[in-house]
Give the backbone structure.
Amino acid sequence: MKTTRFLTTLILLAACLTACHHAPRYANRAERLLAELADPTSDYAFVMAHRGDWRNWPENSLEAIESAIAMGCDILELDVAMTRDSQLVLCHDATLDRTTDGHGRIADHTLAEIKELRLRHGHRVVTEDLRMPTLKEALQRCAGRALVQIDHGWDLYDEVLRDAREVGLEDLVIMKGRTFVDRPELKYAPQLSVPSEQAETLFGQYRAAGIVPPCYEFVFPERTPEVDALAREVIASGSRIWVGTMWKTADGGLDDDRAALSGDPDAIYGQLLDMGCSIFMTDRPAQVI
């Protein structure tokens, strides 16, 4: 018996040493996430926090970002808008009224003016002293810790690239849009309305150009054989499938609220895993995790 235990221990130790010797070394968590994103054979599932942890903090705030990272989110979905003096701030709306104690269009205010305003919680109560962050501030919070997906930045590619380069963090950024973009400076995720001519055409453009995006966002009102078929094609091409689970009209009814109310979220999110989804953009990141 002692001999058997000794041999078993040696085998386990040797296996551990071999695994450790061959395990990839990453300088930080973000580096590991980038490696997973670039590896078409990886089965890692990414959790993307929609506007950060907005259920507990003002959306798109540094506090919402910190909370989402602390709970284990991999990607922060953040909205950008441009000020009068061409600075990028984090805000979903074109105006200040809903998310701050200010009024009017962001484009009509300077960054200094916006920094004087206080953010509101989701229930509209003004915070004690939380301010609207810039994109550069957000990227610096995510450095080494998480990736960043930029929404509402379809026409701001150059400005996003400018800010990301200024802080040396362009590798963290994933842009998205509904048109063909052949630019290598930032990662780009095409959005496909599935099934539709738009989806077939846009996916076909990327295949014809030999460009393999890190992921495609699927938007679909119902999971059908056509949706599954295109998902298989996308995965075979070397890209990931990203699905937003916030609204039933965009995820075939496999949404966060249904998962929460069903009492069996595994069964809901499991259907998305079955169709090949490996990036979940969610309003309930703790639940998805």
